[in-house]
């Protein structure tokens, strides 16, 4: 049976979440998540889809305190992983254009066909990404796990989570094709539709995006009536990977449509470059919400920002969720603007010795 939420129920749930923020640091009060106790066959279709975000059972249980400093995760392993999970979609389209004769009606990809293809590829990428996050959550453990484990998706928000993930994939795929000026006559090709300096372009685009995101993010945490737009996302202080996408309608409009659009006015990307950028973007967003207990910096911007103390790692956004409405660490791709505007929070576990 599909669960729907009325406005009254949503208001009541948000009041429940507000009550959570009033609890002491032990965080004993938690929203109900009975759906995870059901056998898989008894779960609804939406609950089965939400199962994609379920990590190992140990991540939902308090663990003994780890006296060791979180290990430094080799970021080159992640770059290699992205190198064999992101390009295949572009390579398939390029090979199609190469092998299908130009005289054929099916030689070029209609924008609608391209949308369905890249949407499907994005869905596969998200599933792979969730599985990777879960593996390292089990391998390294999670931040603050000796006080409180990761949070399940509440019963009342299972439908919302599945909808949010689907809207995210649809919007990011369609938006990338539109903002990138998709041309069916030009296949993905390095040096043509993909710049030789695409990593530099994407890095600059992510910084521009982070500026607009920081500005919006700080405002919704500061202005009381705007906090209602964002509070649904903060229904958990210890989220998991795909809860990075859990949001209300207005927040989805701003974060999925308007902020990437603004960044694209500053640093334009082609459609193939957008595909690469959106995979890196969801990779960082999922990682930032996974709570993986390791020093795990940005996969693109790390070496550039490290000398200035502006590199972001997983713990930074994990602390942001623990702070709740009071904020700190508003950036999600960098710590540039948090450092400039004095909203940077000291790391608790990823402290260099």
Shape: globular
Number of strands: 0
Helical segment count? 13
- Secondary-structure-derived class: mainly alpha
* % residues in beta strands: under 5%
- Largest beta-sheet characterization: none
**Span of the ends, CA to CA:** 53 Å
User: What is the helix content?
Assistant: 40-55%
Structure explained in plain terms:
By secondary structure, this protein is mostly helical. The protein contains 13 helices and no strands. The protein has helices spanning about 5-20, 45-50, 75-85, 85-100, 110-140, 160-180, 200-220, 225-230, 250-265, 270-290, 300-305, 315-325, 335-340. Helix 7 (about 200-220) packs across helix 8 (about 225-230) and helix 7 (about 200-220) crosses helix 10. The longest helix is centred in the middle third of the chain and has 30 residues, at about 110-140. The relative contact order is 0.15. Mean pLDDT is about 90; it is low at about 15-30.
